[in-house]
Amino acid sequence: MIEARQQTLKEPVCFEGIGVHTGHQVSLVVKPAPVDHGFVFVRIDLEGHPKVPAEVSYVVDTARGTTIAHDDVFIHTIEHLLSALIGIGVDNALIEIDGDEVPILDGSSACFAEKIKDSGMIEQESFRKCFAVSEPIAVEKSGMSLTALPYEGLRISFTIEYEHPYLPEQSKSYLYSSDTFIEEVARARTFCFDFEVDYLKNKGLIKGGSLENAVVITDQGILNENLRFEDEFVRHKILDIIGDLVLLGSRINAHIVSHKSGHHLNVELVKALKKEILKQEGVENPPKKNLMKQGRVLSVNDIQQIIPHRYPFLLIDRIIETDGEKTAVGLKNVTVNEPFFQGHFPGHMIMPGVLILEALAQTAACLMLAKVDKEGLIAYFMSMDQVKFRRPVLPGDTLLLKVVLVRARNKVGAVEGHAYVGEEVVAQGRFKFAFVDEEK
Ligand SMILES: [Zn+2]
Q1: Whole-number Å distance between alpha carbons of 119 and 58
Q2: Distance CA 6, CA 34 (A)
Q3: Which of 182, 314, 388, 413 has the most CB atoms less than 10 A away?
Q4: Domain boundary pick from 227, 247, 280
Q5: Are both 363 and 396 inside the same structural domain?
Q6: Catalytic option among 24, 37, 309, 344
Q7: Are residues 247 and 363 in the same domain?
Q8: 111 C-alpha to center of ligand 1: Å?
Q9: 112, 199: one domain
Q10: What is the CATH number of the domain that holds 210?
C-alpha cells in the first residue's frame, strides 16, 4: 500500500443548523489541526471551552446516534460529520461547537463533505496511521453481526433487513475511496419508519426531525418526494459505520461485513479493534508492582552510581524489574512536593509530559549504562518518535516506567518506552540515545 500523508483543512469552515434529536440551533466551525491531533470537539458555549475527543473511550450513548461526553460535557450525533471528514480524506480537525449536538443539515454527510472539500485541504508532514486487520474480529448481538476481515484497503459490505413491506432487505458492498465517497455514500440521508416517530418523540428524541432532514418510510413508500438512490437506506448505514470507525483513532484496512448493525454494535467493533491495536503496541500488559522481587532491583543509591542525574532532575526512585539486557521497569512516586508543580500549574498541578519522557529515558539509561562496557559514559538524547500523552499525571500517582531495548550498537541505543499509572498507559514513545564520554 502506498503511504499517504495526513491532511487537514486549509481554512476554517462554518456550518449552522439544528440538532435532529435535541432540536437545538447550533453553529459549528471545523478548523485545521496539527499532525496526529485527530478529531476533537470543543464546546465554546461552556466556561473553559471543554474538549471532547472523538475517541471510542468517550462514547456514552449509541441510541439513534453516537454521543460522546467528557464529565458532563456532551456532543450528540457526531457520526455524519466524522464520516464526511474521514471520507473526503481529512485526518486532523478541531471542531468548535456552541451547543450539544452536531447540526443534522439535510440528514446526510454531503453538505459537510462538499463544503470542506471545496474550501481545500493541505497535506501534512507525517504519514497516516493505518491499522491492518490481520485476523477476523467479530462482534454480535441479538441477530445482528459485524465482522472485520483482513483486506487490502477498506471495503464495507452491509445488509439491512426489516420485517417491513416497503423495505424488507437491501445490500451493498462499497470499496472506500476519497474520490467516490461524496458521490456514492455522503449523499445518502438518514431514515426512520413512520410508526417510530411518535415513540421517538415520546422518548425525547428527534425534536428537530422533519422531512427536510430524514427519509420517512411508510408501508406504501416514503413520505418525501423522492430518494437520492434506490438503495439510499443501506448507503446511509455505510455512511454511519464509516463515521463510527473514526472513533478508532486510526484508519483501517479491512473488509467490514455488517448484518443489520447499528451504532451500538459499530462501537463494540471499534472497541474490539482498539484492544487489538493496544495488544500489538504491547500496551496491554502493564508491569505488575508485585514483580519487585524478580530480576535485579536497583535502589536510588544504585541508580546514582549509574546515571549522573541529581535533584531536582533525578526522576526515578528505583528500578523494580530488569533482566539486565533488554527490559527494565522504573518506578517514580509523584508527590505534591515535586519542584515542577510550583509552576506547572499554580492551582492545577500536572506533571509536565516531557518529564515523563525524561523519566522513561532515565530508566532506559539505567538499563543500558549498567553494562560494564558503558561505564563512565553518559546517554544523550538523539531523537524521540511516536510520542503520545494519553492521560495527565497528578500528585499521588505512581509512575511505572517500562522500557524495552529495540536496538543497541556500540555508541547508539534505541528503546521503546511506556509509562503507566495503574493499568493505564499515560505516555509512550521511542527514543534514540548516543553514548558519550563524561570527560569530553
Ligand atoms: Zn446516520
Answers
A1: 30
A2: 9
A3: 413
A4: 280
A5: yes
A6: 344
A7: no
A8: 14
A9: yes
A10: 3.30.1700.10
Beta carbons of 350 and 394 less than 8 angstroms apart: yes
Q: Is 344 a catalytic residue?
A: yes
Report helix angle 263-280 to 232-245, nearest 10. Answer: 40
> 243: CA distance to ligand 1 center in Å?
9
Q: For cell 455488517, what's the residue?
A: 258
Residues 300 and 258 in one domain: no
Q: Are residues 77 and 226 in the same domain?
A: yes
Number of structural domains (the chain) is: 2
- Grid coordinates representing 426 are 499515560
Can you give the pLDDT of all 440 residues of the chain as single tens digits? 456 999 999 999 999 999 999 999 999 999 999 999 999 999 999 999 999 999 999 999 998 899 999 988 999 999 999 999 999 999 999 999 999 999 999 999 999 999 999 999 999 999 998 999 999 999 999 899 999 999 999 999 999 999 999 999 999 999 999 999 999 999 999 999 999 988 888 888 888 999 999 999 999 999 999 999 999 999 999 999 999 999 999 999 999 999 999 999 999 999 999 999 888 876 656 654 433 344 457 888 888 888 888 999 999 999 888 877 788 899 999 999 999 999 999 889 999 999 999 999 999 988 888 765 666 778 888 889 889 998 899 999 999 999 988 877 777 888 999 999 988 899 999 998 888 876 65
Grid cell digits, residue 367: 538499563
Query: Among residues 191, 200, 204, which one has the least CA distance to residue 22?
Result: 204
Ligand 1 geometric centre to CA of 434 (Å): 52
Domain residue limits at 76: 5-280
Active site residue 263: yes
How many Å lie between the centroid of ligand 1 and the Cα of residue 77?
8
The residue among 94, 90, 97, 93 whose CA lies nearest residue 76 is 97
Nearby residues for ligand 1 (ion, Cβ within 5 Å):
190, 240
Q: Which of 182, 18, 220 is nearest to 87 (CA)?
A: 182
Task: Among 259, 280, 301, give the residue marking a domain's end.
Answer: 280
The label of the residue with cell 425525547 reads: 204
Say if residues 54 and 88 touch (Cβ distance below 8 Å).
no
CA-to-CA dists, residue 350 to 46, 72, 339, 343, 395, angstroms: 23, 21, 12, 10, 7
Same domain, 220 and 333: no
Q: Residues 398, 345: contact at Cβ < 8 Å?
A: no
